Structures are given as structure tokens and as C-alpha cells.
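wait is this the right file?? whatever heres the structure
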């Protein structure tokens, strides 16, 4: 996916998201492998058949009658989804100096804090 985010949401909703875009997880295929393959050229093989689409266009797959989405299409569809909208809404809202900022400061301080004595002990143990 060229380093772009094509989905970010609950794990139990990932299948329904991509199925809504016209892709089907084959029997006996791991979901993680399927997700990695979708944004590549090989992802076209997982498209559901649709006889309602005009297959005369060069971009439309002959077997499925659908156009395989590009990475940018996947990104756009994610941004249009409810999870993409929720993330963009959160990113665009101003961060107040209340609970959110306190949480970020505390997490960084506590998670990465390393007392001097503990750091010295680690260095000595390595040597």
C-alpha cells in the first residue's frame, strides 16, 4: 500500500470494510495475507463478480466486471468510512490542555522514564 493507511479500525470490522468495497476473502486464506495482497495487482483476483458493470473499459477486470482499486482509491475509501471520518474529526479538533494533554504527557513520562540508578545498573550488566 506504498506506506499509506488503507484501514484503521476495529479488527472485527476489517472484513466488512473490504467486502463493502467489493472484495471477498477466499476460503482457506489467512486474513493478514489477504489484506497485504489487496492493494497490489494480485488483489484483483479477490474482487466479487458483478454483472452490472460495463466490462468494455480497459480498467475493468474481464473476469469480475469490476475495477480493481488503486492504493489511492483504498485510501480515499477509508477516509470516507466511518472510522476514517472519526479519525479526521479527532485530528482536526483542537487539543485542549485538559485530560488529553495530561494523558499524553503522563504516558510519555511514565512509559519511557528510566531512573538513573536503573540505567546505570543496565550499563554495568551489559559490560
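ok assuming it is, sequence goes like this
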Amino acid at each position: 500500500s506504498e506506506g499509506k493507511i488503507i484501514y484503521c479500525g476495529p479488527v472485527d470490522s476489517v472484513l466488512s470494510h473490504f467486502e463493502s468495497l467489493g472484495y471477498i476473502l477466499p476460503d482457506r486464506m489467512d486474513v493478514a495475507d489477504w489484506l497485504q495482497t489487496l492493494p497490489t495487482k494480485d488483489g484483483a483476483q479477490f474482487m466479487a463478480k458483478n454483472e452490472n458493470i460495463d466490462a468494455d473499459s480497459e480498467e475493468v477486470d474481464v473476469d469480475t466486471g469490476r475495477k480493481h482499486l488503486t492504493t489511492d482509491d483504498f485510501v480515499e475509501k477509508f477516509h470516507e468510512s466511518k472510522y476514517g471520518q472519526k479519525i479526521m474529526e479527532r485530528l482536526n479538533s483542537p487539543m485542549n490542555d485538559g485530560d488529553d494533554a495530561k494523558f499524553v504527557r503522563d504516558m510519555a513520562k511514565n512509559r519511557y522514564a528510566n531512573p538513573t540508578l536503573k540505567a546505570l545498573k543496565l550499563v554495568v550488566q551489559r559490560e
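The CA atoms of residues 107 and 113 lie 10 Å apart. so i think its the right one actually
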